[in-house]
Design brief:
The chain contains 11 helices and 17 strands. With 400 residues, the protein is an alpha/beta fold. It has 2 domains: 3-54 and 303-399, Aspartate Aminotransferase, domain 1 (Alpha-Beta Complex); 55-298, Aspartate Aminotransferase, domain 2, CATH 3.40.640.10. The strands form 4 sheets. It has a 7-stranded mixed sheet with strand order 4-12-11-10-7-5-6, sandwiched between helices. It has a 4-stranded mixed sheet with strand order 1-2-3-15. Strands 13-14-17-16 form a 4-stranded antiparallel sheet, with helices on one face. A hairpin with a 4-residue loop joins strand 2 (29-32) and strand 3. Helix 3 (78-89) packs parallel to helix 8 (285-298), helix 9 packs parallel to helix 11 (381-399) and helix 10 (346-354) crosses helix 11. It is globular.
């Protein structure tokens, strides 16, 4: 079927999309409207942590859809209670609020911190509301989360920004301390900056940040929308640093492909009152039933270790590409990794890889000089090898 037979004009134009329509997906593979197959290393920007259409998600959706889909968040439902209990049992947190997207979860974290700052005023009796965030960070596309983000150019989009988000430098503790005032209520960061170029926070920085925030009576919020749910080889990325944050947000992988996110907090900071927070679909049993299936898979014996092993295998392969093609290097944690290209050839690599025949390769270039890799956590070593071989051929073509 020709692409021009699809009428795409009804869609609001928000991004440049290639002229193909995906019709099927399984595991690491997608198939378009012409039957061409693609090895997918985007996986919906780390959303499909178990790949496309995994059996456990199909089964969870089918079984729950036969019971109840949406009884309203004004009432309890079984999947939501169970998933919340599983998350608190396997983390340092006590309370969970379910949302539909990472941006919504982060918006909730901002509201929760500001509510806590209103209840715990500074010495002058004023509300504390400022949340220190970081250069190159990404927290979502609502007005508040865009203001919290340190993405270049976003400070002038949809102006004026929501106030109260001074920016520090990642892995620079002094830059954080310099911004703490009597208005500061929290520090918020991604343990691994994803959209910013897969930049990990060092263990020393995270531990220093925990000590600094505790010293000043400031909350520590970790945005694990991309780095959480097994992506780094730990169930939650904060575990890499042996610390306990006060608030955490989850998204993307928690739903394995369906709209699900979560805001978690310790009991001492669970200060929302009725009417402060809500949402038509929060705690939807159809989505939380999927979350249970995803979490049970991640918690299966050996699964997280396999993520570490595959991450190390991918790292070795990327370093080999660096040696072969004179690239700058690689970085990341687990199966969230980046290849530093050393020149702005990323978009061209993405285009040529997608258009390869007979099989395409789907890649992501969040910065022109970098590629980001976010495969399914249960991919095979053979699929890693296949990607590396295809990518090597494309790099050679671009550099020719």
């Amino acid at each position: 079927m020709e692409f021009n037979q699809y009428d795409t004009n009804a869609l609001l134009y928000i991004t440049n999309r290639p002229p193909l329509v995906f019709t099927e997906g399984q595991g690491m593979w997608l198939t378009d409207h012409n039957g061409k197959r693609y090895l997918d290393w985007l996986q919906g920007w780390a959303v499909n942590c178990l790949g496309h259409s995994p059996a456990c998600i199909q089964e969870a959706l089918t079984a729950q859809a036969k019971k109840v889909i949406n009884p309203s968040p004004a009432f309890y439902n079984e999947p939501t209670i169970k998933l919340a209990s599983m998350l608190t049992q396997h983390s340092c947190f006590d309370r969970v609020f379910f949302a539909n997207s990472g941006a919504e979860a982060n918006e909730g974290a901002i509201k929760l911190a500001r509510k806590w700052g209103k209840l715990h005023k500074n010495a002058a009796g004023e509300n504390r509301y400022e949340i220190i965030t970081f250069d190159h960070s990404f927290h979502g596309r609502t007005l508040a989360t865009m203001s919290a983000s340190g993405k270049e150019g976003w400070d002038t989009m949809f102006a004026p920004q929501v106030p109260g988000f001074p920016k520090a430098h990642l892995n620079d503790l002094a830059s954080v301390e310099a911004l703490i005032t009597d208005k500061t209520v929290a520090v918020m960061l991604e343990p691994v900056q994803g959209e910013g170029g897969v930049i990990p926070s060092s263990k020393e920085f995270m531990q220093g940040l925990r000590a600094l925030t505790s010293k000043h009576g400031v909350l520590l919020i970790v945005d694990e929308v991309q780095a959480g749910m097994g992506r780094t080889g730990k169930l939650f990325a904060y575990e890499l640093s042996d610390i306990e944050p006060d608030i955490m947000t989850l998204g993307k992988g928690i739903g394995g492909g369906v709209p699900l996110a979560a805001l978690l907090c310790k009991e001492a900071y669970a200060c929302f009152e009725p009417g402060d927070q809500g949402g038509t679909y929060n705690g939807n049993p159809l989505m939380t039933a999927v979350g249970i299936a995803v979490l049970e898979t991640l918690l299966a014996p050996g699964f997280l270790q396999s993520v570490i092993d595959k991450g190390n295998y991918l790292k070795a392969g990327l370093l080999k590409l660096c040696d072969q093609h004179g690239l700058e290097g690689e970085r990341g944690e687990g199966l969230l990794r980046a290849l530093k290209l050393g020149s702005p050839i990323g978009p061209k690599i993405v285009e040529l890889a997608r258009d390869m025949a007979p099989t395409g390769l789907l890649l992501n270039s969040p910065r022109p000089d970098l590629l980001r890799f976010m495969p399914a956590l249960n991919l095979s070593l053979q699929e890693i090898d296949q990607m590396l071989e295809m990518l090597s051929a494309v790099i050679k073509q671009v550099k020719a």
